[in-house]
Each structure stands twice: as structure tokens, then as C-alpha cells.
Amino acid sequence: MCGICGIVGPACQNEENTRILHNMMHSLAHRGPDGAGVHGDDHHLFGHRRLAVIDLDHGQQPMVSDDGNLVLIYNGEIYNYPELRQQLLRKGQRFRSFSDTEVLLRLYETFGPECLERINGMFAFAIFNKREQSLFCARDPFGIKPLYYAVTPSGELLFASEIKALFHHPELPVRLHQPALFEYLTFQFCLNGSSLFQGVRALPPAHTLEWRHGWEQPRLKRYWQVDYTIDDSHSEAYFTDRLLLLLQDAVRQQMVSDVPLGCYLSGGLDSGVVTTLAALQHGAGMPVFNGRFDESPAYDESAHARAIAEMNGCRLEVITPTAQQFMDCLPGLIYAMDEPAAGPGLFPQYLVSRQAREQVTVVLSGLGGDELFGGYARYLVAYLEQCLKGAIFETREEDKHILTLESIIANLPLLKQYVPMLQSFWKEGLFEAMDRRYFRLVDRCHLLTSLLHPDLTRHYDAELLFGTFREIFQRSETSSYLNRMTAFDQQTLLPALLQVEDRVSMAVSLESRVPLLDTRLASLAASIPPRIKYKNGEMKAIFRQSVRNLLPRSVLNRKDKMGFPVPLNEWWQTGIIREFVTDILLSERCLTRGVFNRESLSRTLNAADFRFDRQIWGALSLELWFRQFFDGEAATTRMPTS
Asked: Which of 255, 269, 575, 596 reaches 20 to 30 Å from 119, CA-CA?
């Protein structure tokens, strides 16, 4: 795992650019404390910070091909690199090391861009071809590893693992990209590679980038996407067995490491499965890490985590974050994120990562199962309406893939805790088209609109945003509502969650791996008939069936899905964080920024029935982001070490 950055353009290797590159590398030092390397010529400068995980004594970067033509910098892990290395040896390639970095270089030498078809891993890499004076970059299929880029007015292309590194270039000033701000306010993330910074874009997941001097913009190309062709030729038993085999192999491959390894263990289904399969490979004593809060049982899954740990002989460490740590860490976390965070869960995730780093260098995470197999309650909320619509109007919008109203009734009690969502969702627009209804479920702009300055809201165009949403929602070629919902989340929400996963782990130089995000698993999940995958309206039904023998019954049968909630409302009610929040949101700096409505924000924070909800979290996160990147506070922000 590493941090990469580069400058590509004519007459690139000069004193000024060399200074800029070193500053970029310095801002990425947390991603790679084990080494640094630079390589360049008149047309490119590459910088690399290394976190050594495989072949610790070799694999330094930038890595240059034997003939000196190709230069590689790379962030990530190629999990099937031992098999690829053997294939390349049979083709006559020679190796200087046992690193996956060299396998990637030799693979590109042999197959060019088509090498991506053979790789199973998480990655963002850049290769410069000196003879052709061209740049080739690629990002993994799910966007596990980040890569951002910008083109300067003078025609240089900049790229880096984190946005903050790009701003060391004097031709890239920090400016707000207002259209992306409206995307953030609506979805809590940006769409189609846009960022909140003008001129800065993310290379989308499963895309390549090509660049040559003289091009106004780099050329992007998608190299992989999920195929939603439904497989009606196999039985439920087949899919159950096949899924378990792929889960076992994905975890096996991602256990490869020359440094200590452990697992995040929330106590939920996904992290429990990953931990169990990893423990079978690791043996007794594998360290696992759980986060919980003292304030209420609603914030504590540690009993479930302990049951899984004891069943597998793991060493469980429980971390209990505090309100004081929240106040101490939050400004630095927003800076680490590069952009405002979608939810407060990044705070406990960071503290768990920090504690884990004291024992291990690599952790396995259960992230991704909800997006692949339908694990969010909103899917059931949406499907309940769809089933009612089909029953009332006798429609078959989904052809044979629709679930019947009768089949999902048994699982409707799961929605008891989501009655407010149902009330809000059904208030208007009932039985509209699928895309319009799912947009209503994921649209969060109403949470913040009442707090925004009128000069800002008058530029908000809901229909324009819906059009962007609709293009993504309709992109997957499937008639299944469930598949369209999960496909949208895989392309948008999942990269946002992975951004949090990447930043909070790499902030402490910890490599986080996500075995459930394996393209083989994604392809299998997409091919399973919805009536099997989401049987009887049960969230992740096929996944539960496949792993039924891997977990304690108390975990397998849980109905209290948590996520990683933070007791912000309890801390507010007891006054612990009230001064911290009001000092930020009611400051003259915040109220004169032109983003928030002074009267509305003050009235909301001083209301007798105030609750610290996502509305206030969004405002707090956004204001701290402005302070870090626009007011220059990042220069004095330091993340506490304890």
C-alpha cells in the first residue's frame, strides 16, 4: 500500500517541478512511511511513498523496466500475483524480486492494457512510456484505491492518491466546484468522478486514463462492468455452494502478507464471515478489532463480536471512543478525507484503525456485502411499494424477476424501526417510475436545504441532478429493480464508503483489504435471480444461506443492523460537545461564508427539541472542510496520537 503522485508534460524535469513533486510526496507520507522514491526525465516526474507489505526488501518504486522504457508507480495489492508470476515465467519473463509490483510491470510489458483482464486486486497505478511519451493509468474495478488528476493551464497533467497533494502546484488554486457541492448536498457524495474542487477529478472505478502532451483532457475508458444477465439455469443450491467457494478463495488470496495481519470485527454478518474465513487460514490468535460506545446498547455490538472471536480463537480488542476524542480528531479527519464526510462513522473507524496499527499492518474488512447482495433497509422499503404497485395495477415492470407481495410479508417486521422513513417516502410521488422513487429514497438535500443561504439554494436544480442520477440508474442493463438499486449504489455510494475506508486506515499507515469486493463475487451476485438473491424480501438472503454454518446463531439471526452509529445526540444532550459544535456553526466565519442561513442555523441549534441528526452533521462536516482547505487551517491541524 502506498501513495503515488506525478507530473507529466514537456520540459517537466526542472527545479520548480522537482520541488513541487517532493511537496506532493510529503503530503502523502502517511500512506507510505517505509520508503520514498523519485524518477523522472524531460517528460515526466513520478513520486512514490511505500508501505512495505510484500517482499519487504525489494519492490521499491518507481520501478523501471529492464530496457528503461516503462516506469511504474503503483498503490495497492495484486492478490493473484503468485499465479501471474508463474504464467509470466513460462512466457520467458525474468524477475529480480518476489514483489507484486514487479509482476504488474512485467504483466503490462507482456499484455499492455489488456493485463487488467488478468488482475485480481485493488490498485491505482501509473505507467509512463518514454518512447511514446505517454501516460497510462488504471483504477481497480470498485474504486478501493484512489486516484485524482487535474490538467494545469500550461498543459501539465497532475495526479495523486489524495487531492491535497495536487494543490502544491501553483497553477491549481483551491476553488469550490459548485455543481459538485449540490451533488454532495443531495447524495452525500459526488457523481461520475467529479469532486468538490474545481479542476480536480477522480479517475472512476474500472477505468483507464491515457494522456499525451497536447491533449486538452485525458482520455478515459471503462475496462470492466458487472454483467446483470440473469442465470436461470442453476438452482438455489448451486448458487449457495458457488458463493461459499468464492468467498473462501477471495479471503484466502487476500491473506497474502509478509507483515502482521488482522480483521475489523463489528459483530455483523459481513465482518463476521470475513473474520471466520480468515481465522481458518491464520490459525488461533489472530487479532481482531471492534469499536463500541458506552452510552447505550444501541451503540454496542461487542457481545456479537466476542461470540465470533471466541468461536474462532481470535484475540479481540474492543475500542471505546469518547466525545473528547471526537472533538480532538474531527478537524484532522476532515482534512484526511479531502472532502466532507458522508457520515460520522469515520470517527470511530479511525480510532479502531489507529489501535489496530499498533499490532498489525494489514486488516481485512467486511465492506461491500450490502451493495452486492442487497443489505440496506431502503431496498425493502422500495420493494414494498413496487410489490403494492404490481398487485394493485397488475403490472410486471420487472418481467419474471419481481417478487410478489405475498412473498415479502414475512420480512416486513424488519421495517418497524424505519416507519419514519416510510412515512416520509410515501408522503408524495407514490407509484412513480422506479428511477424517480429510488431518487427520492437517496435524496438527502431536504435535510440541509432549510439551513442553506438563499443565494446558494436559488442555483439548486433538482431536475438536473435527477437527470444525472437517472443516467447512472439506467446504466445497468437489467429490468430488476433490486439490481438497479444495488448497481447504482455500487457505482456511487460504494466508492464513497471506500474513500472513508482508505483515508482512515492510510492516515495511520494501515492497509485495509475488502475481500467481499472481488469481481468474481460481484459477477455471481449479479447473475443470481432476484427471487433467490432477495428471497421473501429478506435482505442478503442468498448470502445468509451460504454462510449459515460459519457464524453463531445469535449473529446469523440478528435483526438489529447497526452500521457504525455515533452517540452525537447523547453527547449534545449532556452538553459535552455543544460548545464545540456551536462555536463552529454559529461563528461569524461560518455565518458570513455565504453557505448557511444565519437565522435558520441559529434557530435549529437553539431549539428546545434539538436532535443532532444528519442535517447538523452535514453542516458541521461542510464547515470544517471549508476551514481546512479554504481558510488554511490544514497547516496547523494535527491528528492526536492518543
From this structure: 269
Residue 16, C-alpha cell as written in the block: 520548480
Chain position carrying cell 455510494: 493
The residue assigned the cell 507484486 is 100
Give residue 120's pLDDT.
97
Whether the ω angle into residue 62 lies within 30 degrees of 0, i.e. cis, is yes
- Written as nine digits, the cell of 618 is 452535514
Measured distance CA(620)–CA(623) in Å, rounded: 5
The closest alpha carbon to 103, from 74, 130, 141, belongs to 74
Higher pLDDT, 225 or 422: 225
Instruction: Say whether pLDDT at 426 is over 90.
Output: no
Q: Are 165 and 9 in contact (CB under 8 A)?
A: no
Of the pLDDT bands very low, low, confident and very high (cuts 50, 70, 90), residue 447 is: low
Strand partners, 176: 197
Going 40 to 45 to 51 to 54, the CA torsion angle's sign is negative
What sign does the dihedral 89-94-100-104 (CA atoms) show? negative
Rounded CA gap, 112 and 618, in Å? 43
| 434-442 helix and 377-393 helix, angle to the nearest 10 degrees | 150
Rounded to whole angstroms, how far apart are CA atoms 594 and 464? 23
In the block, residue with C-alpha cell 419514519: 420
Q: Could you tell me the CA-to-CA distances from 146 to 201, 205, 427 in Å, in that order? A: 11, 9, 39
Q: Which neighbouring-strand residues pair with 46?
A: 6, 39
Complete edge-to-edge strand list for the sheet that includes strand 70-78 = 63-64, 70-78, 121-129, 134-139, 207-212, 219-222
Q: Mind listing the pLDDT tens digit for each residue in 253-264?
A: 999 999 999 999
pLDDT digits (tens, 9 = 90+) for 578-612: 999 999 999 999 999 999 999 999 999 999 889 99
- 3 state SS of 365: coil
Question: By the 8 A CB rule, do 376 and 534 touch?
Answer: no
What value, to the nearest 5°, has the Cα angle with vertex 517 and ends 223 and 483? 75
Count CB-CB contacts under 10 A for residue 538. Answer: 19
In the prediction, which pLDDT does 421 show?
82
Instruction: Report CA torsion sign: 377, 380, 386, 388.
Output: negative
- 81: Cβ contacts below 8 Å, ≥ 6 apart: 54, 100, 103, 104, 121, 256
Between the alpha carbon of residue 156 and those of residues 94, 129, 138, 427, the distances in Å are 35, 16, 19, 51
Q: Which residue has the cell 512514490?
A: 48
Q: What are the CA-CA distances from residue 1 to residues 264, 288, 475 (Å)? A: 18, 20, 32
Half-sphere exposure in the Cβ direction for 606 (13 Å, CA): 8
Q: In whole angstroms, what is the distance from residue 97 CA to residue 36 CA?
A: 18
